[in-house]
Amino acid sequence: MKVGVCSWSLCPEGPDDLIEKVRATGVNSVQLALDPIRTDWGVGALTQIREAGIEILSGMMAMEGEDYSTLETIRVTGGVRPDESWDRNLVCAAENARIAAAAGISLVTFHAGFIPHDVDNPERDKMIERLVTFAGTFNDVGCRVALETGQETAETLLSVLDAICLPDVGVNFDPANMILYGMGDPVAALDQLSPHVFQLHVKDAFPSSNPEQWGTEEPVGTGAVDWSAFFQVLHDRQINGDLVIEREAGTQRIEDVVRARELIKEYRREAN
């Protein structure tokens, strides 16, 4: 299990800035947002990052048109669900898949969107069909995909993975997202989803008292995630996915990543 940091957590202005900030965190691995490579930085940035001694553990794709302003806006605009952004996102997926394949990136993660819990909801079947198509775009070039947790319960996600029924489609498990979206206990969810976990985000949060509002993201170790229990599940279930620190709030991103890195060492020792 390698430890890295999400590139977008560091708000880099370009590859040089990303390299400098990753080095400042004390880790030497990164999950790389692919869309800036596709739209701004160019594929040469991949070589530049690697020549700096930074390993690219995986890629991440964001969907166009997503609006995270409120829970309601992201329900409507998130993932593969919106019809108006589907064709464009599929084009972007094909371009990102080519970038990943050329760079030897073997895993790409993304949010599927709010998949309905009700199996009779026609939106659910539409989304599953689109996820199969989306996954195939990456699988065809030898790249696995992982759906990020949070926007549905573990039970719903398990049923969707069963419906997709592709060995190269799994889970990017984010415990804080389970809390932020109010989708259940992250430790219990990790236990349920453990056979399908390809990668994990290390992020913390507090729940909201209002189910229609976001919870709040917090530095790792200061939120509601029971990290001792979390790492014990990793150990007991023999989950070997890489641990990627994600921080999407606050003004001290590098310091928060360093804190998380040190806590990971402590919790892994404790679980073993």
Textual characterization of the structure:
The structure is a single chain. By secondary structure, the chain is of the alpha/beta class. It has one domain: Alpha-Beta Barrel (TIM Barrel), CATH 3.20.20. It contains eleven helices and ten strands. The model has no long low-confidence stretch (mean pLDDT 94).
Gyration radius (Cα, Å) is: 17 Å
CATH class: Alpha Beta
Number of domains: 1
Strand arrangement in the largest pleated sheet: 1-2-3-4-5-6-7-10
Instruction: Give the amount of beta strand, in percent.
Output: 15-25%
The sequence of SSEs as H and E is EHEHHEHHEHEHEHHEEEHEH
Q: Got a strand count?
A: 10
| Helical/strand content category | alpha/beta
> Which consecutive residue ranges, at least 5 long each, have pLDDT under 50?
none
Please summarize the sheet with the most strands. Answer: 8 strands, parallel, barrel
Question: How widely separated are the two ends?
Answer: 13 Å
Q: Remind me, CATH topology?
A: TIM Barrel
Annotation field: number of helices: 11
CATH superfamily: Divalent-metal-dependent TIM barrel enzymes
| Average pLDDT over all residues | 94
The helix content is 40-55%
* Gross morphology: globular
Keywords:
17% strand, single chain, TIM Barrel, alpha/beta, 272 residues, 47% helix, 11 helices, two-stranded antiparallel ribbon
Give a short synopsis of this structure.
The chain is 47% helix and 17% strand. It is globular, with a radius of gyration of 17 Å.
Draw up the topology in text.
Layout: E1 3-6, H1 15-25, E2 29-33, H2 34-41, H3 44-51, E3 55-60, H4 71-77, H5 83-103, E4 107-110, H6 122-139, E5 144-148, H7 154-164, E6 169-173, H8 175-180, H9 186-193, E7 197-202, E8 204-206, E9 216-218, H10 227-236, E10 242-245, H11 253-271
Parallel strand pairs: 1-2, 1-10, 2-3, 3-4, 4-5, 5-6, 6-7, 7-10
Antiparallel strand pairs: 8-9
